[in-house]
Amino acid sequence: MIQAILFDMDGVLTDTERSGGLMLVRAMANQGFAIQDTQWQSLIGTSMEYTNHALTGWFPGLDIDQFYHDWKAETFAYVHTYGVPKKKGAEEALDALADKGYLLGLCTNNIASVVHEYLGLLGWRERFQVILAAEDVTRRKPAPDTYLLAAERLGIPADRCVGVEDSPSGLTAVHRAGMITVRIPDLIDTSNVPDSIIDVTLPDLTALPAFVEQAASGLWTRKA
């Protein structure tokens, strides 16, 4: 029985991978560094530790604390000017799943201050029964800890949860947690993710409620 749907945020519910990349480029430029598209795109969905290691390795002399300060300031300025872009079908999917009685959770590697800023601007905080950000776990995606903690806080076994992701690290985390792994592709290439860890690929969030109902009713069975 499926009882909860757990979502990544950037690239799944919010169309913020591209804008986040633009803000990263600006934050790097504030310190005189020019980062290539292929470089920042390789950071999508990874942990803060990985990002810190990559950026300081690529750009010796980078003040990582100043970078995060600038990135957050640029990000907040952007979303307060243009709003937080939503992925196709996001609000409708959240409504439909909540109406069916499923618990909803947010599991992201993004930092808490940005997560709650986005949710506040969108008016989405109350939609989720659990919200977990980078600071809530020691081991971040691709480790399963964020998803396992979400299931624990909801009081639901992991195998009764669906995890919705767009990145290799996120998909790996859901699979390692023992949850149904749903891939909805976005900006980052996931062709290198083994098929064995992905239970289903959907074109966008508009298809998610129907899939969940199909799985919950037994019309879809998980591959062995």
Structure write-up:
The chain has 2 domains: about 5-15 and about 85-215, 3-Layer(aba) Sandwich (Rossmann fold); about 15-80, DNA polymerase, domain 1, CATH 1.10.150. The protein is globular. Helix 1 packs across helix 4 (about 65-80) and helix 4 (about 65-80) packs parallel to helix 6 (about 110-120). It has a 6-stranded parallel sheet, sandwiched between helices. With about 220 residues, the protein is α/β, with parallel strands linked by helices. The chain has helices at about 15-30, 35-40, 50-60, 65-80, 90-100, 110-120, 145-155, 170-175, 210-215; strands spanning about 5, 105, 130, 160-165, 180-185, 200.
Shape: globular
Specify the structural class.
alpha/beta
CATH-level-2 architecture of the largest domain: 3-Layer(aba) Sandwich
Please tell me how large the radius of gyration is.
17 Å
Give the uncertain stretches in residue-range form: none
Q: What's the total number of strands? A: 6
State mean pLDDT (0 to 100 scale): 94
Distance between the termini: 17 Å
What is the H/E order? EHHHHHEHEHEHEEH
State the strand order across the main sheet.
3-2-1-4-5-6
Q: Into which percent range does the helicity of residues fall?
A: 40-55%
- Percentage beta strand: 5-15%
CATH class of the largest domain: Alpha Beta
CATH fold topology of the largest domain? Rossmann fold
Total domain count: 2
